[in-house]
């Protein structure tokens, strides 16, 4: 009896610890920003970034969610249908497995690419619980991500067909059942992400245009209060970032129809980015691109110059994204992607939409907030990682010099001083 109680207590502690300790099934001391168990054991602490519990903590009482008159039945959402707590299984064993993969691997990976708030880590799984369209899109994207991690060439055709099957089920639900607008918006953005991951840009554009068209209709964004808040705080910002990222990747000239044999039957366009041999080489290339953008901005260069730079950044993104979606991200890779966000913030809004600092200052706040966590990991590590320190120093230095009006400017300066004074 005593042993049983101890096992239950230990199990509870593991569930509340960091992601790394959960995977290793060891007791976590829950230290912040990274736990001491991982630091002492020389393990990469993946932190507490996946807000699993947040999925079931929405207050959806009738008083807090007044409905407006005049909405069509298809645009209303029954508050009782939203996931306040775990009341029923998510789905089949397969669907439950890929929900877990989504929470622990897929959504944290996607979160590297800009200040999307909690859209992928919390909003998507919230609505997947009761929206077939969102659920099947989530599973399709999670399965696709796992295939990249395992190596597409090594996975079975059955695994590929199951991902396609979930994708088709999502589209079918939207076409036949006319779900609420909010569910269609979430499903469309997940579909956009899935197609971007596979380099299927025509399909990605279809999903993105559907999302933007729905958001342009005022009736769709003025439903009861909960839906309005989700749209304004999460869905609209994510849509703007999706628009900017899509614009960037379409800058590349696809000069051949030949797809890399490793990815044949899985993606529709080849990877055409430069072949970097290391993170250091990729970092130096991005530093050069940032300098090019700054020079163009300061000296009023012509449109051709900036378009050429965007094409180079697009190729860089292609190469680094391939690393990221095929493995568990290291702290060095996460820091490297912060440099990509910096470059995107420097482009004009007419070129990269929501990534541009000119209309979305949150891009730089996102870079600094992520840097806080990475600096903490660097300081607590047993041995200094010079590569991580160099990348963070460059990132924070760019923030301090290039974004003096950012509300995160002072914080970036403090972090830069901490790095310069460390070992």
Features:
423 residues; mainly alpha; globular; disordered N terminus
Question: Briefly, what is this?
Answer:
This protein is mainly alpha-helical and 423 residues long.
Question: What does the model show?
Answer:
The protein is an all-alpha fold. The chain folds into three domains: 2-40, no CATH class; 52-62 and 74-249, no CATH class; 282-421. The protein is 62% helix and 0% strand.
Terminal CA distance reads 50 Å
- Radius of gyration from CA coordinates: 22 Å
Q: What string gives the helices and strands in order?
A: HHHHHHHHHHHHHHHHH
Coarse morphology? globular
The total domain count is 3
What structural class do the secondary elements suggest?
mainly alpha
Mean pLDDT, as a whole number? Answer: 81
Low-confidence stretches: 1-15, 49-87
Work out the helix count. 17
Largest sheet: none
Assembly context of the chains:
single chain
Beta-strand share of residues? under 5%
